[in-house]
Amino acid sequence: MLGGYRFRLYPDREQERILLRWIGCQRLIYNAKVQEDRYYRKFQRRLVALVGMPVPLDQEYSRFITERTAFLREVPSQVLRNGAALWRQAYARFFAGLGGRPKYQTKAGRQAVWLTSELFEFVPKTDPRTGVVRYRLRIGTTRFPVGEVSYRAHRPHGIPASIHICVEGGQWFVSFAAEDPAVPGGKPENAAERIAEDLRHLSEGQLLERTLGADRGVAKPLMTSDGRVLDLSAVQKERIGKARRRRKTWQRRAARRGKGSRNQKKAYRRAGRYARYEANVRQDYAHKTSHALVVDDRYDLYAFEDLRIGNMTRKPKARQDENGRWLPNGARAKAGLNRAILASAWGQVVSFTRYKALRAGKLVVTVPPAHSSQECAACGHTHPDNRPSQAEFVCHACGHRDNADHHASVVIARRGARKLLSGEPLAPEGKSVKMFRKLGPERSEVTPGEIAEDAGGRRLPARRSASQETPGGDPGNPRLKPHGLGGGRVHRSWSWHRC
Fold it and tell me: Which end of the chain has fewer surrounding CB within 10 Å, N or C?
């Protein structure tokens, strides 16, 4: 089964310079494809004669290498090709309903480059004393060498087909997906179904004894059905508070310094360092919590609520009265709640527990969250009055009393056991997209057999190229007007100021 890996990378100064150049060039190709796509769609809407004409969705990139962008020839062509392939994959996600249209990538925040097998090699090296096989990461080609880059692998891993190298807050990482030697082969869904079949042989009472329910909240990030409260330590909370205050201080200092100056960049790096500290603490909490749940031999099934965290943390919509004046919509209070939800690492705890449970031969299921805090675990009576306060549960039918969070976790455990015994699908079938990178190592062409799609998602006949010239122009909008107009035909030569 494929597993995800993320290791610290330690390039030297010269290697950092080369990798940063690769990151920038791949980002430029991606942004150029975004700019080109936006131009075509806006151009199409402004000319009636072009209505119905398909918007090009190819993976070509050679047209972006001009005299003004000659520096693109200083990086391997696979880096540029992968930038166009990433843009194509983002559009495939858009057509599958998994996200919006591709947007511009900026220089701020996390920066990454996608490298395929032509650009890296894991060289095995066996320790003669222990017999342990370790790998050395070699990056680059004969023409564009980077050399061996040291990385720290804290657990065994397989050989991946591609890797992502990223830099965040001055720290470098390498991440990839490879065969997990700790889990038997096959897809995760197949492994989960095998475990589920074994557990379905138990009776409901026996399965309940082997099931642990977990209720996630803001005041208590995780409350389990056996009475445990898993939260950050007091020291971690204190240090996170200090990091937040220092981050704001350095953000204010950066705002007062010269725009684009070295001192401003230094200030932003300091602010990013404090933000990264909080993210690292949350990730550490999620790993330790999931590990504590999975190593408990008393449980084989873990039940969580199927919370839509993205929907729960959306901004409230702006409201206007009949005169057009803006009305209060509780955005400030909602922002505070959103920060608290996202800081509780709800999603990370579930995702980490899921893959660690599969390694241990255990299972994680999600259940509907509706009325889990109002349903009585003793008699099944459900009513809003059963929750008289935030911390107390009192059933008005049978008089059962319990802590509200603990009682909700017990209800979740019962729902998880019943869901497994009922034979329902463990998880809804999700949408997925394929990576479009079947391009030659030195070629810039459309993927063989690729099916074209227009902006409306309709399938069109495969075309050999999308670099056709488009009649007409748009003199009314200079931002949409490409350079080099002549003879009433549009020639591709793009502006790079947005990339």
Answer: N
